[in-house]
Amino acid sequence: MPASDDKQTAATPEAAGPGEPGTGTRTPSRRALLGWGGAGLALGAAAAGGTVAALSGGDETATAAASGSAVPFHGAHQAGVATAVQDRLHFAAFDVKTKDRAELVQLLKDWTRAAERMTAGLAVGEGAFGGLPEAPPDDTGEALGLKPSRLTLTIGFGPGLFAKDRFGLEDRRPKGLAELPKFSGDNLDPARSGGDLCVQACADDPQVAVHAIRNLARIGFGKVAVRWSQLGFGKTSSTTPDAQTPRNLFGFKDGTRNIAGTDGAALTKHVWVSENDGPAWLAGGSYLVARRIRMNVETWDRTSLQEQEDIFGRDKGKGAPVGKAKERDEPFLPAMLPTSHVRLAHPTSNGGARMLRRGYSFTDGTDGLGRLDAGLFFLAYQRDVDKGFVPVQRSLARDDLNEYIQHVGSALFAIPPGVRDTDDWWGRALFS
Ligand SMILES: C=CC1=C(C)c2cc3[nH]c(cc4nc(cc5[nH]c(cc1n2)c(C)c5CCC(=O)O)C(CCC(=O)O)=C4C)c(C)c3C=C
Ligand SMILES: [Fe+2]
After folding, report:
1. pLDDT tens for residues 308-351?
2. How many other β-carbons are positioned within 10 Å of the β-carbon of residue 170?
3. Taking the alpha carbons of 429, 193, 81, 263 in that order, is the dihedral positive or negative?
4. What is the rounded distance in angstroms from the CA atom of residue 245 to the CA atom of residue 232?
5. In whole angstroms, what is the distance from residue 383 CA to residue 325 CA?
6. Residue boundaries of the structural domains of the chain
7. Ligand 1 pocket: which of 186, 303, 341, 348 to mutate (most atoms <8 Å of CB)?
8. Partners of 415 in the beta sheet?
9. 3-state class of 77 per DSSP?
């Protein structure tokens, strides 16, 4: 079907439509963009200036977050960290199969170009139709007609990539990128843990996120293989304090005391790796801890309200800390049980440790025993894992919540800085 057959015009009043830089009045569909005289032209316009670029830098937040709009791909930091959390997640960890460094570098370049297009709401390569009938189309097609949906694609590099005799990266391995220590209560499944690369796809439309991971996996065929993946819904953290705090599957407001995407000072102090931290290639990046945490919702649902509130140290309705009236009131830790989650996780109990939490709920069917296989896919970004996740998770060994949860998957990735422009690519500073 020719592109001109597409009836989708998507004229909406939302900001940051990539097809009409400068106007900010339309959010065109992918096919409409292709039909308006070339996807490359549209992407070039978005990269060169106009409404999308006006939000660039990877620091854009809720203020820029109109559902359906595009989040700029280029910037000092990768989008998908400080970005206002989108509704849906598709996260994939990959094993690198190729032994050829040049082939891996070419893949990262190809992924970058594809990510630029998909985050701008465009189809991959030459699109999903209209090309050579003898060849499979470049794009799988299921996102045609959908809005960019604030898709962000964030890449990470796992410890295995830096192994000796692999890609010549052993001297470039950040000292913080080691295997995480074993924590009390861990019941980790190797098939749900680790990975050489990861891509976090977040979008307000699940099909857009799934399309993005599927197309990256397709481009990587023969060079990388998906090791494990995770779908998420119902964000469990917010990076936008003025928005309503979301609830987790235990019914509690989650993310109240998170680092806000607008809090530049806290991001600099706790999230972004600085030039002095080293290595140089990671400056402007971060570290991501991913944990699949099973939540025994059936047991929780038989627990009294008082016990539930004692466990978190917060009220279930408003989310207020024990003894306080409002959600955002400062917690008074001595009023909470010493084994309550919030008391143990609070920076005061952990030498000031803070991280930017960006997790999602998941339900993956049932476990064969009639219980939901549900939980929290915990994602936390930090500048230094040994001053962020590690001390907090050690402190949580005494957490009363542990009776109801179990960590079953784990991974750690170094998150490189942002892709600066259309000549740059994911991992350039690492591999150059
Ligand atoms: C190691 C880090 C953390 C893990 C793992 C973790 C698991 C986990 N958390 C909840 C629910 C809530 N957590 C809340 C606060 C909170 N949690 C962590 C860290 C981990 N949580 C921190 C750093 C904080 C903030 C502490 C503070 O500064 O006060 C809350 C309260 C609301 C909030 O502030 O976000 C809830 C609710 C679950 C269900 C869970 C594992 C499944
Ligand atoms: Fe928590």
Report:
1. 999 999 999 999 999 999 999 999 999 999 999 999 999 999 99
2. 12
3. negative
4. 17
5. 33
6. 90-293+413-431
7. 341
8. 286
9. coil
